[in-house]
Write a structure and sequence with these properties.
- The strands form 3 sheets. A 6-stranded mixed sheet has the order 7-8-9-10-12-11, with helices on both faces.
- The protein is α/β, with parallel strands linked by helices and 431 residues long.
- The chain is 36% helix and 14% strand.
């Protein structure tokens, strides 16, 4: 057990910090969930008075011998990497049942349990998803457009000038949002992301309980899955891309555990399809879009350089898609940003696609009052009428339920078009 004297003065606040402060004031226990390296421990340490780091073998041995220690000491008590000792979850749950005061525990975890039902903390332990750094959190931009304000339907003025150009966005896509490698030089950063990707196969999958008999096949499948970023490619399409040229293809039952494990360790972050049940929108596709926790992981797995991405090259093991792979990565970066900002606003993010693919809207953000902000993402500096056609179609379908429509670009200026659609450079969007 470690008792920190005070929070780290060098810590840079995250979007999730405000949410965490509000919830800890009323709830007894919060579980910060997310992939390794996204900054869960650093954020939790800003509040913790008592720390149990269960990835430390000495601490783990002591806690295993006397689990009741977890419920002792000044609060909040941080149980870091709780999945290293799954009974810790039940210790916290029982302690909260006995003494249900607010702000007692923070748990952090890099993997969900195999059998979530056996660790139910419903009503006692509230999960909070933590994702990699957004562009504002990396300090590369100052937002001028608030997603929460867009959700109100007030149609705010859209203004601001972005300091980022296409090359800067590509740099941010390849650099990623993991705090531990933000300050690294370009080469060190690339090496760090490659090592992170390799660790998924070598360490994270086995630690999650999935024995890997053919690591080379898993690596090819991961590469194909990364190449399927921002698509709704089926398991069969991804499998075939991973085993191109091979007559011996694994069965679906052999590859489905790969996807399940990726979600359990918070590396896969699928974007669900929007199914509102409206009579005007009955014929919608139901498949989720594939996204990894950070598009930088997709870059590391596919091995493409910045120049290759800008030149429009496709990765090996590519799956069919409309547009370039760089466009898909830019969309994935926006998926990361929108979900962080939407969570802060108690909103949810989906994608919309009709069954035959005639209409598609990249993101549907649904607020608490069911109001919708529709978002298209364009890897371009300018926006024409052709780029907004699906947004205009959706406006006709939703009527007053549509709070706002937005096109996110790589351009320099934020503004509203004459048709009312907001044009927002990616760097200027914030919570």
């Amino acid at each position: 057990m470690d008792v920190p004297a005070e929070a780290d003065p060098a810590y840079r606040r995250r979007v999730i910090d405000d949410e965490l402060d509000v919830l800890l004031a009323d709830l007894p226990a919060i579980s910060l969930d997310g992939a390794k390296g996204v900054g869960k421990t650093a954020t939790a340490l800003q509040r913790a008075a008592t720390v149990f780091s269960l990835d430390d073998p000495d601490v783990l041995e002591i806690v295993s011998a006397d689990p009741s220690r977890l419920a002792k000491g000044p609060t909040p008590v941080l149980v870091d990497e709780w999945q290293k000792y799954p009974p810790s979850w039940d210790v916290v749950r029982r302690s909260v049942d006995t003494t249900p005061g607010p702000g007692r525990f923070i748990l952090t975890g890099s993997a969900s349990p195999k059998s979530p039902g056996t660790h139910s903390g419903a009503g006692r332990i509230v999960g909070l998803r933590m994702r990699p750094l957004t562009l504002p959190e990396r300090g590369v931009s100052a937002p001028t457009v608030s997603l929460a304000t867009l959700l109100t339907g007030s149609r705010p003025a859209i203004e601001g000038e972005s300091p980022l150009d296409l090359e800067a966005y590509v740099d941010q896509i390849t650099r990623g949002g993991y705090p531990g490698i933000q300050a690294a030089g370009a080469r060190a950063q690339r090496a760090g992301m490659r090592a992170y990707a390799e660790r998924i196969v070598d360490q994270d999958f086995p630690e999650a309980g999935l024995a890997i008999r053919n690591p080379a096949l898993l690596h090819r499948w991961l590469t194909a899955f990364a190449a399927a970023t921002a698509t709704v490619a089926s398991f069969e399409v991804i499998r075939d891309a991973a085993t191109s040229g091979s007559g011996d293809k694994p069965s679906r039952s052999a590859t489905v555990p790969y996807q399940d494990t990726l979600q359990r360790i918070w590396i896969s972050d699928p974007l669900p399809a929007w199914t509102p049940g409206s009579n005007h929108l009955r014929r919608l596709a139901h498949s989720p879009k594939h996204h990894l926790a950070d598009p930088a992981l997709a870059v590391a797995l596919t091995g493409l350089s910045v120049d290759a991405l800008i030149d429009g090259r496709a990765p090996d093991h590519a799956v069919p898609r409309d547009g370039t792979f760089l466009g898909a990565l830019f969309e994935s970066l926006m998926a990361l940003q929108l979900r962080v900002f939407a969570q802060a606003a108690e909103a949810a993010v989906y994608h919309l696609r009709t069954e035959r693919g005639e209409r598609e809207v990249d993101f549907i953000v649904v607020g608490q009052d069911r109001k919708v902000v529709a978002v298209e993402v364009k890897l371009s500096r300018t926006v024409g009428d052709h780029d907004t056609r699906h947004l205009r179609w959706l406006a006709d379908q939703l009527g007053d339920r549509l709070a706002d429509s937005v096109v996110i670009t790589t351009g320099p200026q934020a503004y509203r078009r004459k048709d009312g659609i907001a044009v927002v450079p990616a760097a200027l969007l914030g919570p």
